[in-house]
Amino acid sequence: HKKVDLALGAFNDQDLNQAFYATSTPYLYVRNILFTRQDSKYQRLSKLKGQTIGILSFESQQALAHNLHLKTKRYPSMKALNRALNQGQIKAGLVLTHTYTNYLKDHPELIEVSDSTNFRQQGQILVKIADPQVTASQFVVVGKKAALINKVDCKLNKLADRQVLAQLSQTYLGQNLTLN
User: pLDDT for 42-97, tens place per residue?
Assistant: First the structure.
């Protein structure tokens, strides 16, 4: 059996057992978007408590949703998550900001209706649920070997100081997600 020495990714503080894993300092900060349909009665976090929301299987909002008292169901894509939202299988979705933004770029009909008298079109418009409890995910390096994490952390800090992380973030994620 092979072991993984390091993992890089987006985590919330609740995702990691700090006593078990060593983590680097965060190097990127990505906000999560909690959203629903415009015609939904669940447009506030307080109304969503105890309800089922959709998350993507390749993102890491499980612990965050649990801490917000939300049940989750995983979906393989934004298309599948949005379909479940439209069919009433979930009350809202929780995804990373860049995932949400990229999906809306490809689906402008979810931002603005072409026929303002068409109530079906109006209902499927997506709206953000703006509650401050929906916090940012932090991109960190995680592993069991603190010495290895420290080495990687030093290299990431050098990249950050030279603005390389900011450039990579802008290029691949569409915005500068560093704190610099």
Answer: 998 889 999 999 999 988 788 788 888 999 999 999 999 999 999 999 999 999 88
CB 139 within 8 A of CB 25: no
Q: How many CB atoms lie within 10 A of CB 109?
A: 11
Residue type, 118: N
- Tell me 107's DSSP state: -
Residue 22 identity: A
Burial 111-149 (b: 16+ CB within 10 A, else e): eebeeeeeeebeebebeebeeeebebbbbbbbbeeeeeb
* Distance in angstroms (rounded) separating the CA atoms of residues 58 and 77: 9
Task: Quote the CA–CA distance of 164 and 168 in Å, as a whole number.
Answer: 6
Place of tokens 């993102």: 59
111 and 125 Cβ atoms separated by less than 8 Å: yes
Length of the chain: 180
Q: Is the pTM of this model over 0.70?
A: no
Q: How far apart are CA 2 and CA 126, in angstroms?
A: 43
Task: Give, for 167, the enclosing helix (H) or strand (E).
Answer: helix 164-173
Tokens of 56: 């993507």
**Beta bridge pairs of residue 11:** 138
